[in-house]
Write a structure and sequence with these properties.
The structure is a single chain. It contains 13 helices and 10 strands. With 279 residues, the chain is of the alpha+beta class. The strands form 3 sheets. A 4-stranded mixed β-sheet has the order 7-8-9-10, sandwiched between helices. A 3-stranded antiparallel β-sheet has the order 1-3-2, with helices on both faces. A 3-stranded mixed β-sheet has the order 4-5-6. This is Very-short-patch-repair endonuclease. GO terms for molecular function: endonuclease activity. Keywords: Endonuclease, Hydrolase, Nuclease. InterPro entries: DUF559, Restrct_endonuc-II-like.
C-alpha cells in the first residue's frame, strides 16, 4: 500500500503540538517535497517561512511562531494551571534571542533565559516562566505563581536554589514554600510578616488541616468559592471543635483578602492585642 507522505507530514506536525519547523521534519526523514505537498493540499499551513501548523493548532503557539517569540510569563503560567491573580489584558511572551521578532500586541520580555530555549520550542519551560513572572509581576503576585508551581510539583525547591537567579527571582528561590493551595494562602503570610509572630501554614489540628495558625491558638481559615453546601457544613463543625479545644477561629473570604485586606488586618491586630494567639 502506498504511503500518503503528505498526510504523514500533517500527522507528525499534529503530534508535535500542532506547530513545527520544517527543518525538524526534514531531520526526521520527511522530504521537503512532501512538506510542500502537505501545504499545497491544505493539510498544514505555512505560518512563517520556518514554521508550519495544523489547521486547528493552538492560536497562542501560532502567534508565537508568526512573531518570533515564545509564550511565557503570566500567560504561560495560566496555561500550566498555576494560580494567577487575573488574566492579563494582553498575552505575555518572551524573545528567544534568535532573529528579529515581528511587532506584536503582546507584552514582550527580553530577559535572557535561565534555562536555554531549544529553537523548536514555542512555549517556555517552567523555570523560564517563573523567571519572567518574577521580573514582571509585583512580589506577592509573583510569589503566588512560584508557590503554585511548587504545590503542583512542576518544579522542586532544590532545583530552584541551584539556578543562577537574579533580582526578585533570587529572593523568591529562597523564600517560597510548597504549602499554599492558592494564591490567597501566599498573600496572607506575606502581608502579615510585619506582625512578628509565628505564622504556620497547613497545620493539622483535630484531624483536619487549618490554613494558618498564628502563635499557639489563633486559627485563620480562608474560604474560596468551593466553601458551600456540605463543605460549608463541615467547616462550621470543625470551627466549633477548634473552639472547644481552646482555639480562636477567624474565617475570611477571597474578596476580603484581595480587596478588603484592611478588615482582616484589623481583626487579627485586635485578636493579638487581646492575647487570643497565646496558649
Amino acid at each position: 500500500m502506498q504511503i500518503d507522505r503528505a498526510r504523514a507530514v500533517a500527522d507528525r506536525v499534529a503530534a508535535l503540538g500542532g506547530v513545527a519547523r520544517p527543518t525538524r521534519l526534514v531531520r526526521e526523514g520527511h522530504g521537503r517535497r512532501q512538506i510542500a505537498d502537505a501545504v499545497s493540499r491544505g493539510l498544514v499551513t505555512r505560518v512563517r517561512r520556518d514554521w508550519i501548523a495544523s489547521p486547528d493548532a493552538d492560536e497562542y503557539l501560532i502567534a508565537a511562531a508568526r512573531t518570533g517569540t515564545v509564550v511565557s510569563c503570566i500567560t504561560a503560567a495560566e496555561r500550566l494551571g498555576l494560580w494567577v491573580h487575573e488574566r492579563p489584558d494582553r498575552p505575555h511572551v518572551a524573545y528567544p534571542g534568535r532573529g528579529k521578532p515581528v511587532p506584536t500586541v503582546a507584552v514582550v520580555h527580553w530577559q535572557r533565559a535561565i534555562v536555554p530555549r531549544h529553537p523548536d520550542v514555542l512555549e517556555d519551560g517552567i523555570e523560564n516562566v517563573l523567571m519572567t513572572v518574577a521580573a514582571c509581576r509585583p512580589y506577592e503576585e509573583a510569589r503566588a505563581v512560584w508557590e503554585s508551581a511548587l504545590n503542583k510539583r512542576l518544579v522542586d525547591r532544590r532545583r530552584l536554589e541551584r539556578l543562577p537567579w537574579v533580582g526578585t527571582a533570587s529572593r523568591l528561590a529562597t523564600e517560597v514554600t510548597p504549602w499554599a493551595d492558592s494564591g490567597l494562602e501566599t498573600y496572607f503570610p506575606v502581608r502579615l510578616r510585619w506582625i512578628g509572630l509565628p505564622i504556620r501554614p497547613q497545620i493539622w489540628i483535630d484531624g483536619h488541616r487549618v490554613d494558618f495558625l498564628i502563635g499557639d491558638r489563633l486559627v485563620v481559615q480562608i474560604d474560596g468559592g468551593h466553601h458551600v453546601g456540605p463543605q460549608r457544613s463541615e467547616d462550621i463543625r470543625h470551627d466549633a471543635a477548634l473552639m472547644l479545644l481552646g482555639y480562636h477561629v477567624i474565617r475570611v473570604s477571597y474578596d476580603q483578602v484581595m480587596h478588603r485586606w484592611h478588615e482582616i488586618q484589623e481583626q487579627i491586630m485586635q485578636a493579638v492585642a487581646q492575647g487570643l494567639h497565646r496558649a
